[in-house]
Amino acid sequence: MSEMVIDMWTFSKLSKENMDAIGAAEEKLGVTLIAFSEEGTKYADLGDDAVKEVKALEEKLGLSLVALETN
Q1: Bridge partner list, 43
Q2: Whole-angstrom Cα distance, residue 38 to residue 10?
Q3: Number of H helices, E strands in the chain
Q4: 2-43 per-position pLDDT tens digit
Q5: In 3-state terms, what secondary structure has residue 68?
Q6: Considering Cα of 9, then 50, then 63, then 21, what sign does the dihedral take?
């Protein structure tokens, strides 16, 4: 049986300057960005094949996934 790990994420409290910067990036990139915070987050550096696998899983499940390095 695998071990279950639960992380507590919170939506970030953003200053007006941060909101403006995110809004500008959203407009430039044509995407919606969601800001959230978790102490000690380190995102996984995925190769092309792993990114394709995660995207396929997102599509299958109808979810958005974030890949993090595990300790």
Answers
A1: 68
A2: 7
A3: 2, 2
A4: 555 555 566 667 889 988 999 999 999 999 888 776 667 788
A5: strand
A6: positive
Where in 1-71 does DSSP place strands (E)? Answer: 10-11, 36-37
Give the 3-state secondary structure percentages of the chain, helix then strand then coil, rounded to 5.
Answer: 40, 10, 50
Instruction: Read off the tokens for 17.
Output: 């300057």
- Predicted TM-score (pTM) of the model is 0.56
- The amino acid present at 35, given as its one-letter code, is A
Q: Which amino acid, residue 22?
A: I
Distance CA 36, CA 47 (A): 24
